[in-house]
Amino acid sequence: TKRLRGVQIHRPFVFGSEAVPFDPANRPRDAPPDHTHRWRVFVRGIPTSTTAGQQNQTTDISHWLKKVQFKLHDTYANSVRMIESPPFEVEETGWGEFEIAIKFYFVPESGEKPQQLWHALKLHPYTGDIEKQKAERTMVKSVCYEEVVFSEPVEALYDVLTGG
Ligand code: SLL
Fold first, then answer.
1. ipTM over 0.85
2. What are the pLDDT digits (tens) for 73-117?
3. Section 121-138 average pLDDT
4. What dihedral do alpha carbons 54, 58, 61, 62 form, nearest 10°?
5. Rounded to the nearest whole angstrom, what is the distance from the C-alpha of residue 76 to the centroid of ligand 1?
6. Per-residue confidence (pLDDT) for residue 38, from 0 to 100
7. Whose CA is nearest to atom 16 of ligand 1?
8. If you take atom 1 of ligand 1, which residue's CA is the nearest one?
9. Is 13 exposed, middle or buried (0-12, 13-18, 19+ CB in 10 A)?
10. Centre of ligand 1 from the C-alpha of residue 96, in Å
11. Within 10 A of 104 (CB to CB), how many other CB atoms are there?
12. pLDDT band for position 39 (cuts 50, 70, 90)
C-alpha cells in the first residue's frame, strides 16, 4: 500500500497515573494486607474545551489507537494487561512504585508497528506539604502530554486521521 511521501501527522494524548492511599477506616476488602494504595494508569485523549455540564471530555483517540498493553511489575498476578477498547486504563491496588511499560497497538489499517513508552507509577507526594497531603489522602497524579507522530502514513490511516 502506498505511503504518503513527506506527510507527517501528529496526534496528542495524555498518559499517567493517579493514586490515593486507602482510607484506614474503609480498606477495600479484596486488597492483600500489605497493599496501601489504590491507583490507576491510563492513556486518554487530551481534554477538550470544557463547556458547562461537559467536564472530563477528551479527544477521541480510538480512531487511531486500537488497544493498549500495560505491563505491570512482576509482583502482580497477570502482570500483562491488554485493554482492547476505551477507556484504556488499569485499576489496581499495591504498596510500591515501579515503571509501567505501555504499548500502543494502532488500528490495523494503519500498517504501523506497536510503540512502547514508560510511565513511572507514583504513589507518594514528593513536593509540597507532604504530611498534610498524606493526612488528607490527596490524590497523587503524574500525567504527561505526548504526541504520536505518523510519518508517511498509508492512505487508509491518513483518511481516518483526517476524517476523509
Ligand atoms: C519496590 N521496585 O521495591 C519496587 C517494586 C512492586 C510493587 C514495587 C503489589 C504487588 C502484589 C505491588 O505494589 N508491587 O500484588 O503483590 O518498591
1. yes
2. 999 999 999 999 999 999 999 999 999 999 999 999 999 999 999
3. 95
4. -30
5. 8
6. 97
7. 75
8. 96
9. buried
10. 4
11. 22
12. very high
Q: What does the domain layout of the chain look like in residue ranges?
A: 14-23+34-47+56-146
Question: Is the predicted pLDDT of residue 1 greater than 90, yes or no?
Answer: no
CATH pick for 14-23+34-47+56-146 out of 3.50.50.60, 2.60.40.10, 3.90.1030.10, 2.60.40.1970 = 2.60.40.1970
Ligand 1, atom 6, lies closest to the CA of 96
pTM of the entire predicted model: 0.93
C-alpha cell read off for 23: 482510607
The length of the chain in residues reads 164
Answer yes or no: is the C-beta of 153 below 6 A from any ligand 1 atom.
Answer: no
75 C-beta closer than 6 A to ligand 1: yes
Distance CA 28, CA 39 (A): 12
